[in-house]
Amino acid sequence: MKNQIPNLLTLSRIIVIPALVISFYINGPAGNWIGFALFAFAGVTDFFDGYLARSMNVVSPLGRFLDPIADKLLVAAALMMMVAFGRISGLAVLPAVVIMCREIMVSGLREHLAELKVPLPVTVLAKWKTTAQILAIGFLLVGDASPEMIPSILIGDVLLWIAGIVTVQTGYIYLRTGLKHLD
């Protein structure tokens, strides 16, 4: 059973997605905070599934497959819902689109390179991108429900742009690396 704990944590991130979507339909600040809490819960499970898998040496093919998919589904669902509900609007939609396009491109590239037995390891810059992206989504999920002294929307928008800019850089790095193996 302990071998399955990381996989269960990964699956919990996928299961959270419908609840996150439903939180957008809850009127008032409660919906914002519920969405944030669900997203934060998913972030905690992401940390622990990786930590437990490595510390218990139980990295599984299922976990290796599901973990990045769970992350991308969660981020995509959050971004799409925030655009649909106007929490990301105007020019701030651009980095959201860039983030989603890069994720699809890198996933396809990783899949193709895996067939060639060519690894495409995560870069330190990509980890910084993920951090900015997660923080941006967290602030934007809280949105106007945050205390007045915390400009959550402004902070979220700035972090989203930072994540978008770094996303372009990491996408280019991965694409440049991958193109060397595409004939």
Detailed description of the structure:
The chain has helices at residues 5-23, 29-55, 61-84, 93-115, 124-142, 152-179. It has 183 residues and is mostly helical. The protein has two domains: 1-71; 86-183. Helix 3 packs antiparallel against helix 4 (93-115). The radius of gyration is 17 Å and the shape is globular. Its EC number is 2.7.8.5.
Task: Give the helix/strand layout.
Layout: H1 5-23, H2 29-55, H3 61-84, H4 93-115, H5 124-142, H6 152-179
Evaluate the radius of gyration.
Answer: 17 Å
Order of helices and strands: HHHHHH
Helix-strand makeup class: mainly alpha
Let me know the average pLDDT: 90
Count the E strands. Answer: 0
Give the DSSP E fraction (strand runs of 2 or more residues). under 5%
| Global outline | globular
Give the low-pLDDT segments: none
Number of helical elements: 6
The profile of the biggest β sheet is: none
Helix content: over 70%
Number of domains: 2
Distance between the termini: 43 Å
